[in-house]
Every structure is written in C-alpha cells, then in structure tokens.
Amino acid sequence: MDRSGCSRRQGRLNVNDRRALSAWLERCTFPEAGLPLRCGVSGGADSLALLALAVTAGCEVTAVHVDHGQRKASEGEAERVRSYAASIGAAFESATVDVIPGPNLEARMRAARYDVLGPDSATGHTADDQAETMLINLMRGAGLTGLGAMQPGPRRPILSLRRTDTEAVCTALGWEPFADPSNTDPRFVRNRVRHELLPLLEDIADRDVVPLLVRSSSYARDAADLISRQADAIDPTDAKAIASASTPVASIAVQRWVRSETNDEHPIDSASIGRVLAVARGDSLAAEVSGGWRVSRSQQRLSVGRIGDDA
Questions:
Q1: CA-CA distance, 223 to 211, in Å (whole number)?
Q2: I need a surface site. Which of 55, 65, 105, 205 has the fewest CB within 10 A?
Q3: Number of other CB atoms surrounding residue 196 within 10 Å
C-alpha cells in the first residue's frame, strides 16, 4: 500500500458558501467544531458533499482518497479531490491499495478502504444507501440487527441526506462530481439493488420507498437496541446463560459477540445465529458462522475460532 502525505490547506469556505450549505448541515451529525475528522472522499457527489459539510461544521478535516488500483483514471480523480479539498481549507491524503480481482471483490475493496481510513473516519453514506443496506441485509437473512442497517452518528454524518441533496451541495459549490463506472457494475449486489430492485419496488408501490425503508430501519434499530440492553447482562461465552435466555435476547448477545470476535462490520446471518444457539443448548459441539469462522463449546464455555484451527 502506497500513501502520500497531507497537502497544506490553501483556501476556505466563504460566507456565502457556508450560508448556502447551512440548511443541509442542520440534518447532519458531525462531531463538535474543532475536532479532527478523516473523511473518505472518492470524488463522487456523496463524498464531496461530506467533505464540504464537514468543513462547514468546523471540523479539522482531512480528505482521504483511496485508489483501489482497479482503473487507470484514478490518479486524475485523486488530483480532483486534492484540488477541491485545498479550495475549502481541508488537508488531503491519498493511498493506493492493491486489491486483486476475484471473488468477493466488493467486500475486499471495502475492507482495504476502511483499513486506510481508520475506525473513527467519516463516510458519505446517505439515506439512499441506508435503504439499500436494509434490503441487502434482509436478503442475507441478517435478522433484526441487519434490518436496522447503519447506525447514524459521527461516522456517517450525512445519513439523513438523499443523493439529490449531495448533488445539490456540489452544484451550490460549482463542483463537478466524478461518476464511478463501478457504481453501475451488475457484478455487485448493491448496484443491482440500487438500479433494479429499488426502482421495481417504487413502481409497485407507486411512490418513493426510500423514506419508508429508512423509517422501518429506524424502528428495527430501536427494537434491537432495547433487546441489546437486556443482552448486556449476559455473558455470551456462557453456554448455560445463552441457552436459558429468550431467543431474541440470546440472538443479540451472540450477534454482537461474534461480530466483535471476528471484527466483522456486517451482521451475522440468522441461520448462523441459530446454529450457535444450538451449540449453546448442547445440540452440537460446534457450528460454522459466516466468513470462515466457527463457534465451539467446551465445558459450557463458547469460543470463536477460524475453521481448520485446533479447537
């Protein structure tokens, strides 16, 4: 992985630009002014709006461009991001990662990108992304946690905005977003959800379904949070405690534990959770969960390990 250092800040947002962006900023969840914030900026409308709004919020912003090495034109995209960042007083950093084409390309590119950005970085996910994530998790069978999709907050500060909003932010600043051709590649599940499934749902419902899905996601997240608080009292490695708890509470406890142990940002599918609960009950000694991991039981204690490793 190659990195370039931060460029110096050269400009700043003027009063008129800040005034123009203030209406969108009111719907965002940025950290307090003055705090440092790394923003993933690819050059698309969503990430450019993230960059501009973060600066408007008063954060000490570093725009981070990650080149996955999939296209030859990416150097020009990085330079465009550098220019826009400099024009509003944000620092800039770029990195090139080597992601080899093959299975699970989308997931591997995402993992490489987050490795560069770091755990406290901000991304330009919008309400449209939230609706897509809910549908993707629904198809994965991820259960209540998955239906809750992405957690709002400083890591996803523009999650209440629509893509039309981010495009309008760029228009207000006179910025020209880059259209990434990979965003229409049908090899990626999200693209098919975005360009095929959502339009079909809107045609059937005869309305914009994104607000409906986002609202339902919020309800699911609230319900999952309530159950999660009850799950706080359970030791997820205690097979007896898991087996005796109600299924919803035990499922949330196991979900959080497995994701933490495997460092997986995505919800574990409900079938895997069911297999882990069976292990806790003593129906089996071990069960496979997603990503090449398994949960095993020994002397009434549960543990997570790689498939193929010694138990």
A1: 18
A2: 205
A3: 11
CATH number for the segment(s) 2-122+158-178? 3.40.50
The per-residue pLDDT for 311 is 47
What is the C-alpha separation between 80 and 179, in angstroms, rounded?
13
SS3 label, residue 271? helix
3-class DSSP assignment, residue 218: helix
Q: How do 60-67 and 36-40 pair as beta strands?
A: parallel
pTM recorded for the entire structure: 0.79
Closest CA to 51 of 178, 190, 210: 178
How far apart CA 302 and CA 279 sit, in angstroms, is 8
Could you list the beta-strand ranges (E) of the chain. 2-7, 36-40, 60-67, 91-96, 286-289, 293-298, 301-306
Average pLDDT score, the chain? 90
Nearest to 293 by CA among 268, 279, 278: 268
Listed as ranges, residues in the chain with pLDDT below 50 are 311
CA nearest neighbour of 289 among 110, 114, 141: 141
User: What pLDDT is attached to residue 109?
Assistant: 75
The C-alpha atoms of residue 181 and residue 191 are separated, in whole angstroms, by 11
Q: Are 126 and 165 in contact (CB under 8 A)?
A: yes
Express each pLDDT in 193-210 by its tens digit: 999 999 999 999 999 999
Domain boundaries, the chain: 2-122+158-178, 125-156+185-229, 232-306
The pair phi, psi for residue 181, each rounded to 5°, is -65, -20
Predicted local confidence at residue 74, as pLDDT: 63
Q: Bridge partners of 303?
A: 296
Measure CA 264 to chain center. Answer: 11
